[in-house]
Amino acid sequence: MPKDSLLLASSFSQPNAMPRLSMVARTINEQASRFPLEIFERFCSQVGHPEKSMNALVIGIAFKGEPETNDLRGSSGLIVAYALQEKGVKVTIWDAVVTNEEIVAAGLKPVLDLDEAVIQADCVFLMNNHRKNSSIDVTKLNRKSHTKLVFDGWGLFDREETEAVKGLCYSSPGYMTPLLES
Hints:
alpha/beta
């Protein structure tokens, strides 16, 4: 939890007693939020598509999916969505718990039809572990004529099953499908 290491560190009254390990962990977690963006940049470069031409669907902007919450504080999904927007990417959002009104209030665009949004997206980012996220039909993920990126931040999809769908590039923390000619 992002705030837990900071709360622990602030509970120490003596400067020499700062819990270094929890602060290092916090730094690593902050850097981990950049990983999906690095994958996105690598994917765009390898397939030869400008980042600004991409449509990205971010699934799961609540801090966590299980147990269910609509808490957006410390959400890696929000970090990724905002960073993609800053790059000029067209970003849409779907979350099983966060309402469309809350998504709009966060400055983002909600999807009205998840199945259609999955089909239309060039990149799909699964950013929390809500049980509904794993029910997305991976065979619907690529109905376009070019390669599509699926970043699975929680290992909700089976890697081999996803890679078996022609035109899908699967990525999870520490892995990305080797891309051949598109």
